[in-house]
Amino acid sequence: MNIVLIVLDTARGDITNSLIEDGELPNLAALAKNGQWYTDARANGPWTVPSHGSIFTGEYPSESGITGDDPTYYNVPLVEELSSKGYATAGYSANPWLSAEFNFNSAFDVFHNKFDYDPNGISISHLFRESTNPSDLLMTFFSEIRDKPVASSLINLLFWAYQRSRRKDSGGKYLLSRAADRLVKDPERDDFIFVNVTEPHLAYSVPDEWLPKDITKSDLNNIEQDPAQYNANISDISEDEFGILRDTYRSTLKYVDHQLEQLIKKASDNTTIIVAGDHGELLGEHNRFGHQYSLHRELLHVPLVINGPTIEPKKVTETVELKSLCEIILGLAENETRRLPEQPYHIAETISPRPSLATLKQKDGSSPGEYVYMYNHGARSITSDRGKLIEFPDGDVKFINEDGSEATASQELRESLHSTLANECGEIISGRDTDLKVSEDIKSQLKDLGYA
């Protein structure tokens, strides 16, 4: 059996599920109608690093150690175990957090990012980030090409030129196309394919024809799309501008749904397709923007659909956690079909959000909001049908309703939820307020996504 895991980076559960219900995501709607559609799936972290860490290890972020302090994958248990079961594994990532920089590629047989066609050649996108002067570019190219296969590097150069003139999105169309081609390359092979697409992630990039009616690229470009600037109180966003961003966000989901069609059509009847969000986004709710410095529901409620030959159609409304996907996928590889287990509570952690407070303070005119200081060293939450408890490393504790409003709770309830958190995750971890040391290429890519 082939298994395909597609992560729609930054896809909110409430918005995505609503679009599925309304038939505005026809491909996802078809998968949901004939598969398992989890309407209350929860991420175990509010951003890429901790959430993917939980998916690929089956552990909470504090257990896996894959956090903002150290995003490195010293192993990738899900992929490694699938390989041991005879699966050929391939990864296609548009997100720099899921790249060779952090060893995420190491367990895959084949791994591609959105910038370069051949991973063996030099990264052309890296060259163009360093300089736009033609003579400097040529000198750097011929300097670095000595250490890489010439043919691979030249292919990357041609691919970069082609993509520069033709690409109108964040790389999703290209990555899904390569994944689809992989599925049909060897019909006798059992494939595990992972794809991460970032069109729903700021800053938004989709072809003009996919923009909402009456919204132009110019309108979009005139709005601040860097959450770091907003969280540092350098830039402001009006309610009308947030309205444009929300409408455009929905359009990015519709665009990605359209691109899913090419993979769905090429998938054999012996293929299970899993589509999930890794975390959500705040678009003005709670006076916040982006997906850092918060554990609000809008960041943790994500879409999740599983469709395959052994999957019985069912709309599942109970709460489930993304970390359970690891066990479910390994079960599918053994021809075991189970639903994700219902959770009596949901746990999420953020350790060292990115960018750090120290990074925000370095920006000219920076005056970070109070919530940035509150979440700077991390936080963790536990949600049950009786409310939501948020703990901070300094000992502060908040009890809130699911809508984010403050609530009251008995001492007994607080102690019960705290005890469950401690039993599951141990003592709370305080993250470091320091910058990560990464290559200039990755630093530039992370800056494009608002992480630096």
Automatic annotation (TrEMBL):
It comes from the Archaea. InterPro entries: Alkaline_phosphatase_core_sf (IPR017850), GAG_Ulvan_Degrading_Sulfatases (IPR052701), Sulfatase_N (IPR000917). Residues 2-332 form the Sulfatase N-terminal domain. PANTHER family: SULFATASE (PTHR43751), SULFATASE N-TERMINAL DOMAIN-CONTAINING PROTEIN (PTHR43751:SF3). This is Sulfatase. It comes from Haloferax namakaokahaiae. The lineage of its organism: Archaea, Methanobacteriati, Methanobacteriota, Stenosarchaea group, Halobacteria.
